[in-house]
Every structure is written in structure tokens, then in C-alpha cells.
Design brief:
about 625 residues; 26 helices; five-stranded parallel beta sheet; about 60% helix; six-stranded mixed beta sheet; single chain; alpha/beta; Rossmann fold; Hypothetical protein af1432; about 10% strand
């Protein structure tokens, strides 16, 4: 049961992909009905990087401004609040997840694909309006954020899942290891960030193999599914695109795009994808990885410690590089601090040996910069210096060096200092491995506990939450309704004449009927409704933030669905039907025990009548009877 997954466990690890403070503030502001443009401008200005990106976007081809825009207020005003929200959220998440953590997770391809889906759904909703295109853009960008969350929170375990699974089997592996899959985690995260319920329901439906219905939610779900196909097409090479095109043509027919107009639309989407990639600094030349059999063979990793030498003395640099390479180390060389910093960011050497006096960025400034960064705070640093003055050495150690060697350099001394550093590096690696092992063990233990809890709260036959879960959840929802002055309704359901099925056809046939009925209830209920099996042929549906009249309509939809969809392969003597009693209250004025009693009384009256009906109970008297 993914509803039992504790999102707070991931939040506590502080490794979830999450919006930064400014981005989160912008998201919350835009959700307020009385938010002003000036308030938004002030928040944007609080983040210089975001301000620069917004100005860059406002002046880009993707936006198409007629004149140069030089100030943030004008850019925000022309873009609109939702577009700025899109930018703040997406850029914040991309910036916070740019460090490669999970082996096997292709970060550039992930963001490139997400952007392709994002521009696709915006273009689709601009043609056939279901939601505002600017709002659909963000949902498209984050429609697979659950994958990034798993790669971030449990990098090693998820890397193994990615390495041993393809396609739908990945979802099963995710549920086995984490008690949740990336689709369900995506929905949890988006709900936590305050996305509208209609967006979440549409996204949930789009994850299914087939979307039914013609209402706004179903149409948006179909658009999201089409956008994912377009996103995959964007990343495919020419051969793969030829294979994908027939499926696109078939799907496009449901979106007022015939075979003649589809190529133009696809080219428009691809052009927007490239334009947005330039604005957001996302690579749009990324292609889907080759199948495993065709994957290029990676060169073997050389053994030995990875060193970086930094010195503006060319002769010294060449001599030390040769000597250290001969000693078995992997040696790279840079002639100044700026090029060294770029090399460190890209290649992450284990140990840096740097001269002090260099231009334009000297060794001292390089050390300070590294110690202030995430990737350089644990790097081992050795300073080459021509002085042993006490004040100078204190300054160097305060800047962050671990050791120093004086010039002229003795190779024996330098090698001894490197070996001392190597011992520290090995200890750090062992600690990191122990930390990963502990994290892995903790994750597996937490997943096992969630599975046990899920089993204890799940009906084995139907897969629905059981009586224990139903009563606990009712108590929680009742407290929420009281705290927020919201409505709460319950539906008591009982399959009609079910005993005769067991008596005449046997328990196997009865089990099939129960499983089929549970499936119909689950498919017809809304995403926020909780469908439970109390036992036997009795079911309970909890409908949060739903008044009695709305719950009555829900009950009628379920009754009609069960009546119109009979179980296959079971020779029933009479059609399967259901009787339903409904009760609702507002603000917790009636406790959950009373609601259940009222709904049960209403169900009893239906059962005493013709059955196959629904009835809404009031506090004292029946308000409606079918």
C-alpha cells in the first residue's frame, strides 16, 4: 500500500530533490489568491541566479519578446506568475541534483527527457485546452520526479535496480526494495508541493495502460501520455524515431493531429525543446542509451591514486609529473588555479598538490575555494612553498591545506607526504563505504518494516486495506475534518445475495466475485477516496472532504458500475449487485463511530427493501432514498 509510505523518512535524510527556499516561497505565493506581482518580483530579486535566468529567458527565442528586457519586474510581468513559478521550481530542482550520486542513473538524459515531455504537454494543451499550458509545463517537467528521488535517497540500491531491470519490471523491483515505485512517489512529492488534485489524478491515470472517459481529467491524462511519447521521440536517434513514428501517428489521431499535420507539430516541439534547453542549460543533444548488447566497451580504470599537480613552473611540472607517474600514480597537471578548479570540478582527483604563488588564482585562494565547496571539503591538499615562516604556514593551514612540502622539492619527502595522505584518503573511503552500508541496511530495514506494516493492514484476497487500517484511517480523517472544518463521508457497501454464491458455486467462485467487486470499487472511486474491505462481503469507502450529497453520487456511480460489469467466468444465478448506505458530516460534528453507525443503518434499510440501491442517512432521519 503506497499510501503507507512515509515521505518524512526521505525528507529527514535531506537528500530528496526539493525546491530551494526562494523557489518554495514562490510556489506558495503563487498558490495564494491575493498574491501580487510586486510580491513575486521581490522574491525573485532575492535570488540573483534566478533573476539572471529569468532575464535570459525573457529575451530568448523561446519567449519571443519584441524588445530587449533589462529589468526583472518587466520580465516577470510579461512572463506571468505561473511561468515564473515554473522557472523557479524547475531550475531549483535541476541545480540541486547536478551532482552524480546514483550509478546507472543518467542525469543529463533524465533532465533532457523531462524537458522534452514538458514542452510537449505545453504545446498539446495550447492546441486543445484542458489546463493552462504554463501550468502543464511544470507538471510535465516533474512527471517522473519519483525516479530522481529514488536515485537521490537510495543511490546504491537504486543503481542495482536500474542495472537489473528494464521497462515495467523496474516498477516491481522498486516496490520490492522500497515499498513504493517511482510513479507513486512522483504523486506523493507533487501532492506535498501543493499541486492541484486534478493534476495528480490526471497524472495517475496517465501512468495506466489505458485511459477511459471524456471528462477534463481523462482528456488531460491522455495528453500527458501522448506527451511522454513525444518526449521519447525527441531523445531517439533517427532509427529509433522511425520505429516510434507509427505509434505516434496512432496516438495523435486522438488529439486532432492527422498524419499530414503531425510532422509539423513534432518539428515545432523539437524546436521548442532545443530553445528551452539553451535557456535552462539542459543538453538537448542527449540520446537514449544503446541496448546493452550494443553499448560501447568502457576502458578499464587505472589503478593508483589520482593526483593533480598545479604549478606555473613548466619545468617543475613536467619533472614531477614524470616522477610521480613512475611511482604508480595517475597524474594530471594544470598551470594555474583557475584551470585547476575547472579540472577538479570535472574529474574529482583524490589529492591535489598545488604551488602557492600563481596568477590569476593562487594556491591559497584555490584551497579556500575547495574547502568552501561540497566536492572539495574532504579533498587532501598539499601545498608547495618556498617559505617555512610560522605566520605563512599558519595562514596556509587556516586556508585548508593538510600538509606542505618546501622548495626545492625532495622527491623522497614528497612521496612520503603523499603516502601519508593516501592513508587518510583510504580511511575516508572506508568510512564512506561503512556509511553507505549503514544507509543501505537502514533502507532495507525500513522497506521491510513498511512491507510488514502493509501486510498487516492489507486484505490478502482483494489487496484492499483491511478493517484495522479502515478504522485507524477513519479516526485520522475525522480528526482532520474537525481541525480544518471539512466534510467527511463514509459509504458502507454489502454485496447482495453473496451467501448464495458461496453456497451454490463454492468459495472459489465467491473469491472471484469479491476480487472483481473490489476492482470495480477501486476503479470507480476517486484518487483521494479510501476503499477498504471490512470482511466477508462488506466494504467501506472513506471519502475525505466530501459532503453527503457528493458521496451519494459516488455511491450511485459505484452501484451502477458493479451492476453493469459482471464478473467473467462465474456462472452466477443472479447478477452481482451491491447495496450502499451513505452518511456524511461537516467539521467533525459527528464522530467517525456515529458516521459508521448512520451509514450502516442506511445500508440496513436498503437491504430490507429491494436491495441494489443507495441511501443517504442524516443525523436523525433519512435525507434521500433511492
Amino acid at each position: 500500500m503506497t499510501s503507507e509510505f512515509n515521505l518524512n523518512e526521505l525528507k529527514a535524510a535531506d537528500r530528496l530533490p526539493s525546491p530551494s527556499g526562494v523557489a518554495l516561497a514562490i510556489m506558495r505565493l503563487v498558490q495564494e489568491s491575493d498574491a501580487t506581482l510586486q510580491q513575486l518580483v521581490q522574491l525573485v530579486k532575492a535570488d540573483p541566479a534566478l533573476s539572471g535566468r529569468i532575464l535570459r529567458f525573457a529575451n530568448s527565442a523561446a519567449f519571443g519578446a519584441r524588445r530587449p528586457i533589462a529589468d526583472v519586474q518587466t520580465a516577470v510581468m510579461m512572463m506571468g506568475m505561473q511561468a515564473v513559478r515554473n522557472f523557479a521550481l524547475s531550475l531549483s530542482l535541476m541545480n540541486n541534483s547536478n551532482q552524480v550520486l546514483c550509478p546507472g542513473f543518467d542525469y543529463p538524459a533524465y533532465w533532457s527527457r523531462s524537458l522534452a515531455v514538458s514542452v510537449s504537454i505545453a504545446a498539446i494543451t495550447a492546441r486543445e485546452l484542458t489546463v493552462v499550458p504554463e501550468e502543464s509545463f511544470t507538471l510535465g517537467l516533474l512527471s517522473d520526479i519519483g525516479s530522481l528521488a529514488l536515485a537521490t535517497a537510495w543511490s546504491d540500491i537504486y543503481g542495482e535496480c536500474l542495472g537489473s531491470a528494464t521497462g515495467a519490471s523496474l516498477l516491481a523491483l522498486e516496490r520490492e526494495h522500497f515499498s513504493i515505485d517511482h510513479n507513486a512517489l512522483t504523486l506523493l512529492l507533487l501532492a506535498d508541493w501543493g499541486f492541484p488534485a486534478v493534476f495528480l489524478e490526471a497524472l495517475k491515470q496517465s501512468f495506466g495502460l489505458k485511459v477511459e472517459g471524456l471528462d477534463r481529467t481523462a482528456r488531460f491524462a491522455k495528453q500527458l501520455a501522448f506527451a511522454r511519447l513525444l518526449g521519447g521521440y525527441c531523445l531517439a536517434d533517427d532509427a529509433q524515431r522511425e520505429m516510434l513514428l507509427p505509434g505516434l501517428i496512432k496516438e495523435a489521431a486522438g488529439h486532432a493531429l492527422d498524419e499530414a499535420s503531425l510532422p509539423g507539430f513534432i518539428n515545432e516541439v523539437i524546436g521548442l525543446w532545443h530553445d528551452w534547453g539553451k535557456v535552462c542549460d539542459i543538453k538537448t543533444d542527449v540520446r537514449q542509451p544503446l541496448p546493452e548488447a550494443e553499448a560501447p566497451v568502457q576502458p578499464p580504470v587505472l589503478s593508483g591514486l589520482g593526483l593533480l599537480l598545479v604549478d606555473d613552473d613548466i619545468m617543475l611540472l613536467a619533472r614531477l609529473s614524470k616522477q610521480l607517474t613512475a611511482a604508480g600514480y595517475q597524474v594530471a597537471a594544470c598551470r594555474d588555479g583557475e584551470s585547476a578548479l575547472k579540472h577538479i570540478v570535472e574529474h574529482r582527483p583524490q589529492l591535489v598538490i598545488t604551488d602557492w604563488r600563481m596568477k590569476p588564482l593562487d594556491g591559497l585562494a584555490l584551497c579556500k575555494t575547495l574547502r568552501a565547496s561540497v566536492f572539495g571539503k574532504n579533498m587532501y591538499l598539499i601545498m608547495l612553498t618556498s617559505t617555512e615562516e610560522e605566520d605563512a604556514l599558519v595562514e596556509a593551514f587556516e586556508a585548508g591545506i593538510d600538509d606542505y612540502v618546501t622548495k626545492p622539492i625532495s622527491l623522497r619527502v614528497l612521496l612520503a607526504r603523499i603516502r601519508a595522505g593516501q592513508r587518510i584518503i583510504m580511511l575516508q573511503q572506508e568510512l564512506e563505504k561503512e556509511s553507505r552500508d549503514i544507509q543501505r541496511y537502514t533502507a532495507e530495514l525500513a522497506a521491510a518494516n513498511r512491507r510488514l506494516k502493509s501486510m498487516a493492514n492489507t486484505d490478502v484476497l482483494t489487496g484492499l486495506p483491511n478493517r484495522r487500517y479502515a478504522l485507524n484511517r477513519l479516526e485520522q480523517e475525522s480528526a482532520t475534518a474537525l481541525r480544518n472544518n471539512q466534510a467527511l463521508s463514509v459509504l458502507m457497501l454489502d454485496l447482495d445475495y453473496f451467501k448464495s454464491v458461496n453456497d451454490t458455486l463454492g468459495h472459489d467462485a465467491g473469491d472471484k466475485v469479491l476480487v472483481h467487486a473490489a476492482k470495480m470499487m477501486r476503479n470507480t472511486a476517486r484518487s483521494n477516496d479510501i476503499v477498504c474491505r471490512l470482511g466477508g462481503e462488506e466494504f467501506l469507502i472513506i471519502a475525505p472532504n466530501t459532503d453527503g450529497t457528493t458521496a451519494l453520487s459516488l455511491a450511485e456511480r459505484i452501484r451502477r458500475c458493479i451492476e453493469e460489469n459482471q464478473p467473467q467466468g462465474v456462472a452466477l444465478t443472479r447478477p452481482m449487485t451491491v447495496s450502499i448506505g451513505v452518511a456524511g458530516s461537516v467539521g467533525g460534528k459527528a464522530g467517525w463511530e456515529e458516521l459508521v453507525k448512520w451509514a450502516d443503518d442506511a445500508l440496513y434499510r436498503v437491504k430490507q427493501g429491494k436491495r441494489n440501491g443507495v441511501e443517504l442517512a442524516g443525523d436523525v432521519e433519512v435525507c434521500h432514498k433511492r
